[in-house]
Amino acid sequence: MTLNRHNGGVLDAARDCVLAYGVRRTTLTDVARRAGVSRMTIYRRWPDVRTLVADLMTREWVRVVEGLDLSDPVRAVVAGVRELRAHPLWRKIVEADPELLMPYLLDRRGASQEAVLGVLERAVGDPRKARAVLLVAQSFLVSAPTMLGPVTLDELDDELAAMLEAYLG
Asked: I want to staple 76 with a disulfide (CB 3.0 to 4.6 A). Which of 68, 97, 109, 149 is the partner?
């Protein structure tokens, strides 16, 4: 994600539009108006809303990961899952446009997953373990809310921590 002088403002505007309208109802015209730039400025970098939102998701998720204390990888992963689950953009996408997440869960890794893998590889020291940890963390991020009932999210997060502790020892 290459940034020039407009990109940060455009991504901020895109975030505001997605939070207000959802991805499907956001247009590049809406984003340009909110960012105070021309539509052509946006079209030079992003051909469509999905591409723009992909860069926005990368920026937002990487910010969460970069803010974690990696001295304790188990705590960092659980904290990251909790922060992402509560993140306003994540919540809006899951509630309004969950199909946007499917390619990253079924077909390919996205830029944010690549960034998280790099962080996890440094934190746990093993590329295979980093991938396994990411897969487990993603499942708790995406699916934990479907498992509520006699257990809470906090209890499930405690189980995630126990699993990771046993695995990473």
From this structure: 68
Neighbour-count burial of 59, counting CB atoms closer than 10 A to its CB (0-12 exposed, 13-18 middle, 19+ buried)? buried
Q: Which amino acid would we find at residue 104?
A: Y
Task: Specify the pTM.
Answer: 0.89
- Interatomic CA distance for residues 94 and 18, integer angstroms: 12
Helix axes 28-35, 7-21, angle to 10 degrees: 120
pLDDT in tens, the chain (169 residues): 444 456 889 999 999 999 999 999 999 999 999 999 999 999 999 999 999 999 999 999 999 999 999 999 999 999 999 999 999 999 999 999 999 899 999 999 999 999 999 999 999 999 999 999 999 999 999 999 999 999 999 999 999 999 999 999 8
87 three-class SS: coil
